[in-house]
Amino acid sequence: MTPETAEAESGASTSATAPGTLPVPPPAPGVPPARPAAPPVPSCVPPTLSAVPAAPPAPTCVPAAPTCVPAAPSAVPAARDGGGPVAAADAGPLRFVVLGDSFSEGVGDRADGVWRGWAALLAEGLAAGGRGPAFLNLAVSGALSADVADTQAPRALTFRPHLASVVVGVNDTLRRTFDIALLARRLDRVCADLDAVGAVLLTACLPDPGRMLGLPPPLARPLARRQRSVNAVVHALTARYGAVHLHLADPAWTEDRALWSADRLHPGERGHRAVAGGFHRLLAARGLAHGAPPSPEPLQPPPTRTEALLWLATAGTGWVLRRSRDLLPQLLLLAGAELRHWADGTGTGPLDARADDALAAALAATMGR
After folding, report:
1. How far apart are the two ends of the chain, measured CA to CA in Å?
2. In order along the chain (369 residues), what is the average pLDDT of each group of 10 residues?
3. How far apart are alpha carbons 240 and 227 in whole angstroms?
4. Of 275, 289, 247, which is closest to residue 65 (Cα–Cα)?
5. Is this structure's pTM higher than 0.90?
6. Gap between the Cα atoms of 229 and 360, Å rounded
């Protein structure tokens, strides 16, 4: 999901229930579906989405486990409620493919010297009786929506997945070339192609990096607008394709420092376990996860303050410099616009309206077909 760490360049609201537990978000008002009704869309969907037709509910089949390692066959559900047919005759193991950036690659959760992450943890609990599914993680740190659409998606389709996670967009918000209309078209194409081969889609909305990094308001607000637009597109596509959606943009999630790694941009082990547990709970409620949920308790201690400072002084500095060459000049211009509007008394209204108009146009163009 997410921006890069030092290791490689390229968010589930928690409640006060228990550490590492992600509650299922309350449903937001639905939109009259053009196809069979989809699962409820999370409550943070902006008003712009009210004109977006809902999509059919997601399929009823699933897969999962290590890196593209097939195991003993698991039962594959025979049919979907809507969309394309599932490969019911396939007697092989369930297949789980992961598309995205460093969030899904597992950055922040290192096990045995490699990134593990929420997707691998979730994979372990999809099939009952210890039977492992086939698991292929295509996510790469720093990936943009274009990388997912042009490089990862074709490989995912050849895998013929029963379950496919598509979580990307934060890196797009950190580029001067950010274009919400292009992002919406790319993600719609990816979701449509995976839906057509019978995959159940997993999606998530994510926190904006400005808030995670604690940037001053004039710098943070432009990034927040971008991430809100990305999340709105994800919510619309979730409704359209009946995806299993995990809401990861709430302050309760972002403000729990125990869930985050030293870089403040990626979940730590506890956070990845919380994400895996949240998806497992949602999948189990739809009859798509049959194994034990991942433990919420990390096996490794959280990063110390010294480790966090070391990251900021070494890898973090490199990340900031790389982003500065691409984003910072434009971000400073956007911050200047913020300050001018505050100075003339108009506040953020005009800038918010401009972002809302761009989002509405992107959704109309993408969802109107």
Report:
1. 28
2. 41 39 44 42 41 39 36 38 40 89 93 92 87 91 96 98 97 92 98 98 92 82 94 97 94 83 84 96 95 90 71 62 67 82 82 94 88
3. 20
4. 289
5. no
6. 9
